Amino acid sequence: MENKNKARNNFLTIVAVIIVIGALYLFQNSSIDRYYIRILQYWGIYVIFGASFQLLYGYTGLLSLGHAGLIAVGSYTVAILTLEPSVKAISYLLRPPSPLIANVQIPFFPALILAGIFSAFFGLLVATPALRLGGDYLAMVTLGFAEVIRLLFVNLPALFNGSMGLRSIPQSANLVITWLIAILCVFVLKRLETSNYGRNLLAINEDEIGAEALGISVFKYKVSSFVISSFFAGIGGGLMASMLGTIDPNTFKSTLTNAAITIVVLGGMRSMTGVIISSGIYTIMSEYLRVVESPIVLGSFKFPGIPGARVLIFGFMLLFIILFMRNGILGDKEFSWDWLFSLFKRRDRKPSIVETKGGEQ
Residue 59 is part of which domain span? Predict the structure, then answer.
């Protein structure tokens, strides 16, 4: 019976993924406003950011305040590797492009994999010394790392074109590709979290000394968790660069890190379903709350826009969640086909004679 249910669930999951991708393909090729397509694409990218951060924060208990720096590494990697040499020659106005990158151009997907690898490498460089110190040092080191990365982009114009950023990046990642990669990332990370590896991370999160006593190498698991999270953050960053078509150092401020934290806390620290739902909520809210940053006219009253008001609203939302919804929307619960079928069974089940008599009494 268990094997039958598992086979049924796998089949239904594959069918659901095919339906979702088919619907996204229709959206992509329809006459729907490109603005809404962009929102859906952002949603998929934020799913990757949230899922990568959940592994680190929700399972391992490590707080990184520098995820924006890792996203930036992935974005610039894809941008530099996919730009045509002729475009680089025109775009690099402050200094000519370095010989290391001047004539380099590779297809999008290899560039995306390299974006993840480079981000993972920088994650390893940051995590190895920071995690040996223990405590809250990781948060402080990663916060500094994000700012260092941003300053490197500004002060190395031969590589990154300085504060002018990079333009005319090939927009290879459409809506379908973005969500296919997001679904693959969610699948891989969820398999990791439900494996022995994920259970070891949870043990470290709950009690490091106890985990060490059980023979779990705490330092090794923490570093590997940070590196894996960095890899997927780089993948998301590469997709973002391809979607936007233009990036600069100011694109990767702390708001991206705040977005990842908000998504994980809002959806549920250990719920991948919650991450997907909260990513959608965050994406839609971040777009429609732009109205509070623009002047609003209501009859004879005119309210000036408040720059950065969206960040303030998200801050209050986070505070509300921490105070009144500590487990987020789903906590550690996940959507499952078994749960869905159990709902239908409860609805269809007729009360027994004993239950009926008990109700009458």
Answer: 37-290+305-360
Cα angle 119, 120, 124; round to 5: 120
- Residues linked to residue 301 through DSSP beta bridges, in sequence order: 298
Give the residue among 236, 253, 257, 225 at the shortest CA–CA distance from 77.
236
Instruction: Report the predicted TM-score, pTM, of the whole model to 2 decimal places.
Output: 0.89
Q: Rounded to whole angstroms, how far apart are CA atoms 231 and 49?
A: 10
pLDDT digits (tens, 9 = 90+) for 102-154: 899 999 999 999 999 999 999 999 999 888 877 678 888 898 999 899 999 99
* pLDDT of 302: 73
Cα–Cα distance for residue pair 241/111, rounded to 1 Å: 11
* Cα end-to-end span (Å), the chain: 38
In a domain, 4, yes or no: no
Beta bridge partners of 303: 296
| CATH classification of the domain holding 200 | 1.10.3470
Write the CB contacts of 116 (distance below 8 Å, at least 6 apart in sequence): 74, 231, 232, 234, 235, 238
Domain annotation covers residue 13: no
278-288 residue pLDDT tens: 999 999 888 88
The closest of 334, 332, 64, 55 to 195, measured between CA atoms, is 55
CA nearest neighbour of 112 among 147, 80, 154: 80
